UniProtKB/TrEMBL annotation:
PROSITE patterns: GST_CTER (PS50405), GST_NTER (PS50404). It catalyses: RX + glutathione = an S-substituted glutathione + a halide anion + H(+). Residues 5-84 form the GST N-terminal domain. Belongs to the GST superfamily. InterPro entries: Glutathione-S-Trfase_C-like (IPR010987), Glutathione-S-Trfase_C_sf (IPR036282), Glutathione_S-Trfase (IPR040079), Glutathione_S-Trfase_N (IPR004045), GST_C (IPR004046), GST_C_Tau (IPR045074), Omega/Tau-like (IPR045073), Thioredoxin-like_sf (IPR036249). Its EC number is 2.5.1.18. Pfam families: GST_C (PF00043), GST_N (PF02798). This is glutathione transferase. GO terms for cellular component: cytoplasm. It is an enzyme of class 2 (transferase). It comes from Linum tenue.
């Protein structure tokens, strides 16, 4: 195999964006050095290599940095194009579709799930979570709309990209682990077998991939972390609304 060069990944123990890159590197069999950042005390390396956003993940390949998880995934696919699996299809129409869905995950699904957890970023969500019963169900319904779209997209398919795992699957993959964590904290069901059979099937298929299964952050640590983040957001929101 050709020399991989020096590959270093800046991430955190829990970063869902970082996980996308971990999976891509591991599935393609690319050896790399992993550096866990403390985001409350960012390293000089992070400030130097991602001065624009100072966010993880950052991939450093032979001293050059690549930022933004979806951009990193494409870089990995192009740089190690000989290593299967191929993360973006060859066909331009299919490539466009893969990029479209990856963007959809970031702009809609992932964001709305975080907003649901925080119940603060959107006034409508805030309302849903400070009120009871029917209105809370309506807050959940807006996320349900996006999940329904994904359910339809996945129907009859193994992966979002088709037969093989691809970039949109990486973009959505964190859902498999984090949705149950959010469900536990919120005490409600977001994804279920009955309403989301294809999504549930896809979740199982994703978690059965050994490289993915072995890379999840510890569940109890995640529950503690996200519950604390949520409490902090809710307290701040209450304080600022008097
Ligand atoms: N769009 C970015 C998002 C990355 C991101 O939000 N990273 C978080 C950790 S999960 C971060 O580094 N936050 C540090 C900060 O905002 O200062 C990507 O896809 O890479
Ligand atoms: C911040 O990180 C540096 C090393 O990168 C370390 O020397 C320092 O003690 C850390 N500061 C705090 C407050 O954790």
């Amino acid at each position: 195999m050709a020399d991989q060069g020096e590959v270093k990944l800046l991430k955190t123990w829990s970063s869902l964006f970082g996980l996308r890159v971990v999976w891509a590197l591991k599935l393609k069999g690319i050896p790399y050095e992993s550096v866990d950042e403390d985001l409350t005390n960012k390293s000089d390396l992070l400030l130097q290599y991602n001065p624009v956003h100072t966010k993880v993940p950052v991939l450093i390949h032979n001293g050059k940095s690549i930022c933004e998880s979806l951009v990193i995934l494409e870089y990995i696919d192009e740089t190690w194009s000989q290593n299967p699996p191929r993360l973006l299809p060859r066909d331009p129409i299919q490539r466009a579709s893969a990029r479209f869905w990856a963007k959809f995950m970031d702009e809609k699904v992932n964001l709305e799930l975080l907003e649901l957890l925080m119940a603060q970023a959107l006034p409508s969500m805030w309302q849903a979570f400070t009120k009871e019963g029917r209105e809370q169900e309506e807050g959940v319904a807006s996320i349900a709309e996006n999940l329904k779209l994904l359910e339809a997209e996945l129907e009859g398919k193994k992966f979002l990209g088709g037969e093989e795992i691809g970039i949109p699957d990486f973009a959505l993959g964190w859902l498999v682990n984090l949705v149950p964590v959010f469900e536990e904290i919120l005490g409600l069901k977001i994804v279920d077998e009955e309403r989301h059979p294809s999504l549930s099937e896809w979740s199982r298929r994703i978690s059965d991939i050994p490289v993915i299964e072995e890379s999840w952050p510890p569940r109890d640590k995640l529950v503690t972390k996200w519950a604390a983040i949520r409490d902090h957001f809710l307290a701040t929101a209450r304080a600022s609304s008097g």
